[in-house]
Every structure is written in structure tokens, then in C-alpha cells.
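C-alpha cells
===========
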Amino acid sequence: PSAATYFLSVDLAASGIALDDVAFANRLIDEAGVASIPVSAFYAEQPVTSVLRFCFVKEDATLDAAIARIADARERLA
């Protein structure tokens, strides 16, 4: 059994983002160059479409750069 995870889940709706997980994941790639995992990909039926997963098993510099790119793209992503 896993005692921990290397993923952070973000609730898009609670974050004020009206797009579904796939649409926002695609925008995030296009606008910020940051990849995420739409949680709906894990469902065969009745998917949860408002949650994205981010993997953070990366070097601190990589994570810092991704955060900066998301921050810079924030207005375009809304």
C-alpha cells in the first residue's frame, strides 16, 4: 500500500474555473506549456470532470518554472 503520492489534485470548479478537466488541461498546455492529467481519464462511466492532477515528482527548479508559467498565463487561462 502506498503511504504517499506524487500528485496534487486541483478542483477546477472550486478554483473558479468553468472549463472541464480536459479542456483546461489542453489550455494549460497551449498557454503555459504545463502538462496535467484530467481525472476524467480514469473513469469508464460518469467521470468526474472538474479535477486535474499535477505530478510534483520533479526538481524544484522545474516546479518553480511551471508555477511561474502558470502565473504568467493566468489571465489567458480564466
